Amino acid sequence: MKNSEKKGLFPMFVDLRKKKTVVIGAGKIATRRIMTLTQFCENITVIAPEATEMAQTLATDGQITLLTKKYGRDDLYGADLVLAATDDPKLNDEIHSVCKCLGIPVNVCSDQRKCDFQFPGIVKNEDIVIGINAAGTDHHKVKKIRECIEKAFAKGEWNE
Questions:
Q1: pLDDT band per the 50, 70, 90 thresholds, residue 118
Q2: Angle between helices 28-37 and 53-60 (to 10 degrees)
Q3: Dihedral sign for Cα atoms in the order 135, 138, 142, 143
Q4: d(CA 114, CA 83)
Q5: Torsion angle defined by CA atoms of residues 105, 33, 37 and 75, in that order, rounded to the nearest 10 degrees
């Protein structure tokens, strides 16, 4: 293992409130990430020929803009952040390539090597936000730790 691989990832909190976030795909994984993003982002556009019921509900509630259509390269113009979350690896690769050419940070859900950022496990309690990440190595451990922190908040262990 290279020394750089041992260093892990730097946790960076970014203000996404006014940023344009584009999610290509509206399946199960994409919808989970979209639901998380709605807690931090005011401008989320989701592009997919079909969408989960939850994604449709988020659109109906005005939390996201849902475009039920196939992706086109022009959908990425003006985006500040992109998530490629389709079930088509070739399409995800194309989205990655376009984002790299346009200088847009991208997360490809199906290929960790093509992610400029990783999506952490998140615990949000009022003004406290905790991000948990295992550099893509152990999603189950991240989930367990997130659940432990959520339980601690629920018990009031950090209340003053």
A1: confident
A2: 30
A3: positive
A4: 11
A5: 50
